[in-house]
């Protein structure tokens, strides 16, 4: 019996998968959902191609499925059901403290007959942030709220300087409510590193997005 991991490409889903593996969970697949409208990760904004590159870099098979906001739950269930004949016992998530998120995944996983595994749940957000860095992971800030976070941070590395900045802005340090999102490019889960060669910053609906024009594996 194996497990699958909900994978946004960001630090929380990555750290959750890393911790789950360390706890003895065998992760057979990463599961990622793409907005049909924009071709980017649902709710995060990362380009589909970058997630595919992550799958190659990590070396765990990636299942990527397009959905719309209206049929997200249906698409989620279809994706998981496509893997359950392989003997999937549960699914790993990177939720930290939002009760509505946990309630949703527990309900949906219960309806699918699998367990919801939450390695980060209830942990201090600053400790999650620093544990991620101290474990040797590298990530860049891929999107951010235009109202809460300055444009200059988009495309920059996630580090303690950014942590200090977040404290001055009085926002959640892990961006649990969508204040910002990240793309993991290297670390202990990775066999190869992702290098963003060329990019530009765009603004969509008062949200900064890193539009990656060229990227590659090293």
Radius of gyration: 16 Å
CATH architecture of the largest domain: 3-Layer(aba) Sandwich
Tally of contiguous helical segments = 6
Give the domain tally: 2
- The beta-strand count equals 9
Give the CATH H-level superfamily of the largest domain: HUPs
Order of helices and strands: EHEHEHEHEHEHEEE
Low-confidence stretches: none
Strand order of the largest sheet: 3-2-1-4-5
CATH class term of the largest domain: Alpha Beta
Rough outline: globular
Question: Please, could you describe this protein's structure?
Answer:
The chain has 2 domains: 2-117, Rossmann fold; 125-217, putative n-type atp pyrophosphatase, domain 2 (Alpha-Beta Complex), CATH 3.90.1490. A hairpin with a 3-residue loop joins strand 8 (194-203) and strand 9 (207-217). A 5-stranded parallel sheet has the order 3-2-1-4-5, sandwiched between helices. The longest helix has 14 residues, at 99-112. The chain contains 6 helices and 9 strands, in the order E-H-E-H-E-H-E-H-E-H-E-H-E-E-E. The protein has helices at residues 11-22, 48-58, 72-83, 99-112, 125-134, 160-169; strands at residues 2-6, 27-35, 62-67, 88-92, 115-117, 138-145, 180-186, 194-203, 207-217. By secondary structure, the protein is of the alpha/beta class.
